[in-house]
Amino acid sequence: MLDLLNDFIWSKLLIVMLIGLGLTFTITSRFVQFRYLGSMFSIFAQAFERKPGQLSSFQALMLSVAGRVGAGNIAGVSVAIMLGGPGAVFWMWVVALIGMATSYFECSLAQLYKRREPDGTYRGGPAFYMQHGLGQRWLGIIFSLLLLATFGFGFNAVQSFTVASSLHDTFGLPTIASGIALTVVIGLIIFGGIKRIASMADVLVPIMAFSYIAMALTVIALNVTEVPDVLTLIVKSAFGLEPAFAGGMGAAIMMGVKRGLFSNEAGLGSAPNVAAVAEVQHPAAQGIVQSLSVFIDTLLICTSTALIILLSGVYQPGTEMAGVVLTQSALAAVVGEWGRVFVSMALLLFVFTTLVYNYYLGENALGFFTEKRVPVMVYRVLVVVLVLWGSVQDLGTVFAFADVTMGLLAICNLIALALLFKVGLRLMRDYDGQIKAGVKTPVLDPKQFADLDLDPKAWHAPADAPAAHAELGDRVYQR
Fold first, then answer.
1. Are 143 and 269 in contact (CB under 8 A)?
2. The domain made up of 2-477 is a member of CATH 3.30.470.20
3. Domain residue limits, the chain
């Protein structure tokens, strides 16, 4: 049943929706994900600024990268290559590049419709723009339930399975022992709250990401003469021109899209929950920053894993290794057995932050339709149980369950994004207009969006609103 449902969702609906809407967002916005790459460092400088008690834009970025970078980057890429051939990597790139535009709009909208909590922090995400942007609270509840199932339960099981199988392959540690250790750790830290998670993430994430990329560069340097052949193999396999690999073009596209979405989450509706928490001057600025996390996740880290596997010579058509084991074996073949230990340690760091991130998303989703304490406690118990369950399952069961809930979650969010796209464009044009007028740090003036259901506690008219902003007036907002 899971296989039939997955086949329908991924081969009939999501490939068309993800790529179709992503291309629409990209072209209509004049390639917004690339237009601001040149000024990304200046936007980053602003991203470090934060008010006491609030998350900075940079912390929100690191938190979303912490969630995105995990089993998908190591085990997910391995699975994509095993089942879709090297060509799946090419389609992961495609999904990431157009997904950057999707991520820009979903994170900008999440910022726009965020709500201020009594303690001064913010809460937001797709469920909030479904309720306050579309006026459809019922859709927000459905989305929240799917988010709860996908991240709180499904993805945590995948992360647990991946780290348990990695430690078993490297150290011979029984998977149940790894599962118990993970449940103890997750049980101890889920009471820390979003601020503690963020402070941990903006230290651990850069360290683990750069160390992993450095290892991939080492592998590339040791096999530099073979890199052109590997890149050619990826592109040719993507279009079915290498029949020796997997199921040809169809399998490459499906696995590339599926594992690409699992890894970078662009359009899935997860990152907007974190993006909305940050304190920023303009929602579009956070959209720009968050689109970069898709680039980091797929174009840098997933590509690193793919090159490690394909340059090692370990992978051959018909290779059957359980997810992360293929990556570990590939690295060990190039740098020696210590490479297997390195992957296990990197994965531990990746999974540690991702488990906590997934838990937070689930609790945030739960808070959308209930503020009672009992459901939160039940949810925490179930998270711990699912982490233990995932560690002793097989690869097919864990990924099949996660793929179904992930697919339904993406469909729900993409429909909302399509319906709110005009609002997203309006927000983008406001930011673009201020930049064009010479405003260094664009500021949102809620008076220009008075027709929308915004929270006046979250967005209030700035006392020193730029004069250029007023001059833009109706010319920008009515277009």
1. yes
2. no
3. 2-477
